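Aim 2, interim progress: modelling of the manganese (II) ion-bound target.
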Amino acid sequence: MTSGRESLTFIFPPAAPVGLAIDGETRLFPVGRVFCIGRNYADHAIEMGGDPEREEPFFFAKPASAIIAGGGSLPYPPATASLHHEVELVVALASGGRNLSRSAAREAIFGHAVGIDLTRRDLQDIAKRSGRPWDMAKGFDASGPVGALVPAARREPSGDASITLDVNGERRQSGTLGQMIWKPDESLAWLSTLVELKPGDLVFTGTPAGVGAVVSGDRIAARITGLPALHCTIM
Ligand code: MN
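Predicted structure of the complex, ligand included:
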């Protein structure tokens, strides 16, 4: 008897997982699934026409292949004239489970990184108006640059950590992690009632106000206090 894994034969080599750098470590974090929380900062919920007082957390996803480890040069995507930046704290999971308590959710966290939830805002606006899915607005190629992870065992970002995004040296987004409506452990606990969380999962935890468009040639610097900065250039 051979194990199932050894006996698998594919018609072509399966894609290798995207690997995120880990600060101070040569091994990589293998990305599994990518979940994102919508409207998780009150000021951004208001700028998008939502009501931060009443809304329960809601989630969407990007394919893992959309993650660009370390940022760098990113293609301007097709089919949009309104490519928006959303700087976000990204939580990476080392374990998972269903129906996690907040403390169990905290224990599942491997580490944190800075990410950008790039969005084709014009396609998202059409999808919202017509009641269609967001996938093509959110899950396109190279839509998720993510910086190096810092293990939570070494350092955890605090509520007063600043989260900022600059375009060509000009501040566009600015907030603190404490402004999140649903804290990362609450979001993970909620998400674990919808899917079984697994090692390798990433969760983008929402963006503060100030989202806006970038164009070819723009240089983006995304930062969260205590985490390695993420630099991208739109090609
Ligand atoms: Mn977002």
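The pocket of manganese (II) ion is lined by residues 36, 86, 88, 117, 204, 206-207 (CB under 6 Å). The first helix runs from residue 4 to 7.
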